[in-house]
Amino acid sequence: MSQLQDPAAYTAQLQDKVARLRELLAPFAAPEPEVFDSPIEHYRLRAEFRLWREAGERHYAMFAAGDKFTPILIEQFPIASTAINALMPQLKAAWQASEVLSHKLFQVEFLTTLAGDALITLCYHRQLDAAWQAEAEQLAQQLGVSLIGRARGQRLVIGKDYVEEELTVAGRLFRYRQPEGAFTQPNGVVCQKMLQWAYDVLGEQQDDLLELYCGNGNFTLPLSTRVRKVLATEISKSSVNAALANLADNGINNIELVRLSAEELTQALNEVRPFRRLAGIDLKSYEFGTVFVDPPRAGMDPDTCELTRRFERILYISCNPETLAANIAQLHDTHQVVRCALFDQFPWTHHMESGVLLQRR
Hints:
Radius of gyration: 22 Å
Structural class: alpha/beta
Strand order of the largest sheet: 1-16-17-15-14-11-12-13
CATH class of the largest domain: Alpha Beta
GO biological process, one term: tRNA methylation
Number of helices: 10
Low-confidence stretches: none
Number of domains: 2
GO molecular function: rRNA binding; tRNA (uracil(54)-C5)-methyltransferase activity, S-adenosyl methionine-dependent; tRNA binding
Binding site for S-adenosyl-L-methionine: 185, 213, 218, 234, 294
Order of helices and strands: HEEEEHHEEHEEEEHEHEHEHEHEHEE
CATH topology of the largest domain: Rossmann fold
Helix content: 25-40%
Keywords: Methyltransferase, S-adenosyl-L-methionine, Transferase, tRNA processing
């Protein structure tokens, strides 16, 4: 039995993470973490492989951290979704049978969803021509996927440049477009648990929600059903476009989305300077009771952290418990941790996703 098939080994690594989160939050008198586990295999919805040429053939390869010269050749990838594992040998057979598809192909990326959609990106060290387009169209049809070819200055899309996901929160189905190259949660099963936890913890509110770092609207959609209205911000153009499409696809009309960084929104709320991207949005019309943040690994910068202090409730999802703890330390004199959770988004690694609800003292 491999470690990936051993429930006892999985439980042990999860308990280690719980102990680590408990230790990091102990200075803030946090309650015991709620723990949300992951499937022990086939949980990862996206994967990226370099290709390694050996004995005249290209193979999927990965490398240990810090070592770019010793490939680990891969035929199957048990942590990846069953869809990725089914596509891997079919794609390999296709490039082995076609010089047009394989010539100067150096990287392959898979993006799949719980809803059954799939997108493959092929990356090349050469320009892609009509012959490539013809074979790629045939391949996409054969595999039942969308396909993107990337080369310097080129991005050829066959089908869609996004996948479609469906996640259920509190009995309601939400549909998401997840663009190629934009951030999405890699573990769909745990993502759904995170959404449900955030929905439950927020509770039914009569005031408004401010969301920073909203991405494609992953949390925005279900949380919008718990409040009067939402102002959400995101800086990535592709994520903003996906979020706008997701609002329309789900028929949600109480969300205003603005393309601003968290730092810029802080300046706008502090009336440091106006932003044209806020034209038509009356910030003074909002009665914010909760701020929701899901920042990058670096956490919130000090000014944004100070901004969140104004709110009665701070709902914080973190992919880095160390920066989460540092941000809580800055807020601890005015807010206390009343709920916390560990989401095992990344089994078999030291990484963890966590969440806290901070309430004004």
